[in-house]
Amino acid sequence: MKRNLTVRVTLSVALLGAFSSGFAQTQAASTTQANELPPVDKAFVQAASESSSTEIDTAKLATKQSQDKDVKDFAHHMMVDHTKLTVELKMAAPHGVAVPKDNSDPAVLDALKPLKGKAFDTAYIKSVGIEGHQKAIAAFQKEAQEGQNADLKKAAAKALPTIQHHLEMAQALAAKKGVE
Fold this sequence. Notes:
2 domains, mainly alpha, single chain, Ferritin
């Protein structure tokens, strides 16, 4: 009987130790996942995801509302590249940090939705192609220079040439279509 009680106490102590050790590890993992990003990195994740979502959603609009092959080609290129950039951003984000999806700028979408043809093309090239990429470049440059999360900082620096190229493409398209 005494031996049986000793075995039970020993087993209980062992289980309690294993449980508390596992609990401590789980608690540490949850705390790590719940940690907020530094403000500069958090602002970048929001700006980058909004930029790419807006690019993708407005590119889809362009395929329906533009009659211009050049505008549609530019839109298709933006859709493909910004989908890749979104995937790269999600891969660079620390575990537990949610990268918002489908968070397009509603003001940009609402301004473009009622437009068709040349009116759409002009607004799309100006607001998304040029102004949108200028804002994106500023956000990516800031993260590349000031970011505190190494993976996000590296992803921003890697993506920057692509976004700068998009701006150049938009400016060339604007010049070709007489958009000022």
